[in-house]
Amino acid sequence: MGGVGEPGEGPAPPGAPLPTFRWEQIRQHNLPGDKWLVIERRVYDISRWAQRHPGGSRLIGHHGAEDATDAFRAFHQDLNFVRKFLQPLLIGELAPEEPSQDGPQDAQCWCLQHDLGHTSVFRKSQWNHVAQQFVMGQLKGFSAHWWNFRHFQHHAKPNIFHKDPDVTVAPVFLLGESSVEYGKKKRRYLPYHRQHLYFFLIGPPALLPLYFQWYIFYFVIQRKKWVDLAWMITFYARLFLTYGPFLGLKGVLGLFFVVRFLESHWFVWVTQMNHIPMHIDHDRNMDWVSIQLRATCNVHKSAFNDWFSGHLNFQIEHHLFPTMPRHNYHKVAPLVQSLCAKHGIEYQSKPLLSAFADIVYSLKESGQLWLDAYLHQ
């Protein structure tokens, strides 16, 4: 075993003893262009490779200077194949006296995590990327890269400010700790104590037809995702060629925005009912299971709820097993629930209408936190 390593030594030569690092050394390498992470107690320098990461540089960068073992195992199907890409990045390993994870650790969640590793028996084959581009681009008019960019970050760090784009929504809405921060700094871009009311005007109605609509085009052009852009153009071409002869230009545009308007309502309520009412905070470098359970709740199983949400009412299972096909969530849910009960960990599930109402209640509560801090600080 090599001695304690010095920062910036570079990849270890093949066959040479690996230098060892302490967490205090690793924590120094979480800067743009200088990022290390730990997987299975081995230390990797991903500074240059992060831009080539298939899941995006932000996704892997969010785990900078952390133990990324659980995220690594959750997101990758063929671990042996992926380890081949890691090997050239290997620079050392954790010192024997160092814990596997730096930061707060929930012993109960570590027990659950161990048990879940033996119950993950349902797997999904890797989507062909061209098929994903066809579905997202030709059938929906969206960008596959844009969706992966947002969704992968959400799964890696759910409800974490600046790492989960779904909750980084200030200054339009304030959630969790951002409410108090804005109040203390006397920021008042909008009447946030009324955000639970204007949510109905600019949340569900506007997310897809207005915000997402322009942002997707901005994303693909700014990042030069020309293949995605071509697939998106085929969607609009098909739309106008199919309905144009019957409805005319104004009719096609009206149909398009009405469909997006209705779809936006469904999308916002179904995707936010599992997260917005849950704990939202800055990154505390917690273990994988703790992050997922603090940020996620389920909606009760029923034939209607399963159909209406596309099985996303099993959001806990969706986050613990991101590669699992959604129709299998109900099979593993009883196992997860029993393991949570065994280890004394809260497993939240609620009725559908209660989940919807909790979105509004949580916005109202956050708005009140802002007002209190704004008036009294």
Automatic annotation (TrEMBL):
Q: Name one GO biological process term.
A: unsaturated fatty acid biosynthetic process
InterPro entries named in the record: Cyt_B5-like_heme/steroid-bd, Cyt_B5-like_heme/steroid_sf, FA_desaturase_dom, Fatty_acid_desaturase
Q: Which Gene3D superfamilies match?
A: Cytochrome b5-like heme/steroid binding domain
| Taxonomic superkingdom | Eukaryota
Residues covered by the Cytochrome b5 heme-binding domain: 18-95
Please give the start and end residues of each transmembrane region: 197-220, 240-262
Recorded GO CC terms: endoplasmic reticulum membrane
Query: Pfam families per the record?
Result: Cyt-b5, FA_desaturase
- Functional pathway: Lipid metabolism; polyunsaturated fatty acid biosynthesis
Key words of the record: Fatty acid biosynthesis, Fatty acid metabolism, Lipid biosynthesis, Lipid metabolism, Membrane, Transmembrane, Transmembrane helix
Q: Which GO terms describe its molecular function?
A: oxidoreductase activity, acting on paired donors, with oxidation of a pair of donors resulting in the reduction of molecular oxygen to two molecules of water
Q: Mind telling me what this protein is named?
A: Fatty acid desaturase 3
